[in-house]
């Protein structure tokens, strides 16, 4: 139905009227659509690689260095953000990053660093939200990687040790290649989640300052539920759907070409 409504002028209270490609043409002149795409892409390029690498490295450390109670403690601590609602996480971090009275600025003040307007500065707001998203997501992907590590044959590491391979070499030439299918899953899920980001941004910045943190889903929300342009919102949603599909196909081809399947 979204595809159909994208070709109509639809305001919920009135029946949809077919207008062809007008909604798609309107995107070219929309002052919010381009920033929304740009911010969503930047957010994705920041969060996906960082949370993928961090979750893999931490999972490897927990599997090889920290076991027993210590390992269980770290796994539990890192998974707490995952089970917390995004709205709660956004609200807590909004207070922590506050310019006045925020715990982050208070800590920086102890070492002589002045107050930083993390969420109010145009060039810092999106990065700040991205860091919070990484903090929340790492625990989820860590568990996936940890489960994958349990399936890597221990004999491979034992043989590598006999050949004199260092822990770093074992990680790069055994762990990373063995977990390529897991990495494909993690990157695909991370990309989809990043393109769908809404509640964290809405809670922390509301899309501001200006258009600094507005995302595609937030732009869809504003068009559909604040301006009641459901047809136009459907067109943007359909474009978002196509972008995610294309990226997923490209990722699959890249990992298939590298022996990821």
UniProtKB/TrEMBL annotation:
Protein name, entry field: Sugar ABC transporter permease
Q: Which family does it belong to?
A: Belongs to the binding-protein-dependent transport system permease family.
Query: Where is this chain primarily localised?
Result: membrane
User: What is the recorded membrane topology of this protein?
Assistant: Multi-pass membrane protein
Subcellular location per the Swiss-Prot or TrEMBL entry: Cell membrane
Origin organism is: Hungatella hathewayi
Which segments cross the bilayer? 41-64, 76-96, 102-119, 126-147, 171-193, 200-220, 232-250
GO cellular component terms, A-Z: plasma membrane
By its UniProt entry, which PANTHER family does this protein fall under? ABC TRANSPORTER PERMEASE PROTEIN (PTHR30193), INNER MEMBRANE ABC TRANSPORTER PERMEASE PROTEIN YCJO (PTHR30193:SF37)
Instruction: Give the UniProt keywords, A-Z.
Output: Cell membrane, Membrane, Transmembrane, Transmembrane helix, Transport
The ABC transmembrane type-1 domain, residue ranges: 37-251
Q: Which domain of life is it from?
A: Bacteria
Xref: InterPro entries? ABC_transporter_permease, MetI-like, MetI-like_sf
PROSITE patterns the UniProt entry points to: ABC_TM1 (PS50928)
A GO BP entry? transmembrane transport
